[in-house]
Amino acid sequence: MALLEVRNLTITYRGQAQAAVKQLDFSIEAGETLALVGESGSGKTTTGYAVLGLLPAEAIVTADRLEFEGRDIRHFNQAELGRLRGGRIGMIFQDALSALNPLMTVGAQIAEAVRLHHRVGRKEAKFRALALLRQVRIPMADERYASYPHQLSGGMRQRVVIAMALAGNPALLIADEPTTALDVTIQAQIIRLLAALQQETGTAILLITHDLGVVAELADRVAVLRNGECLETQPAARLYQQPQHAYTRQLLNARSVAGGQL
Ligand SMILES: Nc1ncnc2c1ncn2[C@@H]1O[C@H](COP(=O)(O)OP(=O)(O)O)[C@@H](O)[C@H]1O
Ligand SMILES: [Mg+2]
Question: Which ligand is nearest to the CA of 37?
Answer without folding.
Answer: 1
